[in-house]
Write a structure and sequence with these properties.
Number of helices: 4
Order of helices and strands: HHHH
Largest sheet: none
Number of strands: 0
Mean pLDDT: 76
């Protein structure tokens, strides 16, 4: 029995058994695969180069998108860090004020003067110092060399009385007799 092989594009005869139809379909699939392989071999270099170009284009697009997202994320983190820093600074300032108030209250309970009270006291001391200096200036003017020359004996009298060698009248000073110690 001779069988006729079916050519591509022909439809199987209605009387052909099912197994012949399956064999013919499998052969057609095989031939189509071989044709695709032959065409891929012929155009393989061109197809590879085309795929490389498309890959580079895709890599650039994804790299740009990644850089944009990174810049966005960096900006968000920077703003978040600025906000956190501002909040932390505000909280630190509040804590510092609370601490200063409590220390001031404790010092007040111990009757320690505040910095303002010390500053006011220093100003008063400076004012009193200026007043004392102003009062001394006229007294110094009264003790000029012209006034001292008018009373030449006053200094000499003071010197002799202060030394204890003579009395105010000019007589030598007398010593009191010594007491004897008991038993001598």
């Amino acid at each position: 029995m001779t069988r006729k092989t079916q050519q591509p594009g022909e439809t199987p005869a209605p009387t052909a058994p099912l197994s012949d139809t399956i064999k013919d379909s499998a052969q057609q699939i095989w031939l189509a695969g071989l044709g695709a392989f032959a065409q891929a071999q012929a155009e393989g270099g061109k197809a590879f180069e085309l795929l490389v170009k498309e890959g580079l284009s895709m890599q650039r697009k994804t790299q740009l998108a990644a850089e944009e997202r990174l810049a966005e994320a960096t900006s968000r983190v920077s703003h978040l860090a600025t906000d956190i820093t501002a909040k932390a600074t505000g909280q630190w300032d509040k804590l510092e004020n609370i601490f200063e108030d409590r220390v001031a209250k404790a010092l007040k309970r111990l009757n320690v003067p505040s910095a303002q009270e010390v500053a006011a006291l220093a100003e008063r001391v400076e004012a009193l110092d200026r007043q004392v200096l102003a009062l001394r200036r006229p007294a110094r003017a009264a003790r000029t060399p012209a006034n001292a020359a008018a009373r030449p004996g006053a200094k000499a009298a003071r010197r002799t009385v202060g030394e204890g060698s003579a009395s105010a009248s000019g007589a030598p000073a007398q010593r009191a007799p010594r007491k004897k110690a008991p038993g001598s």
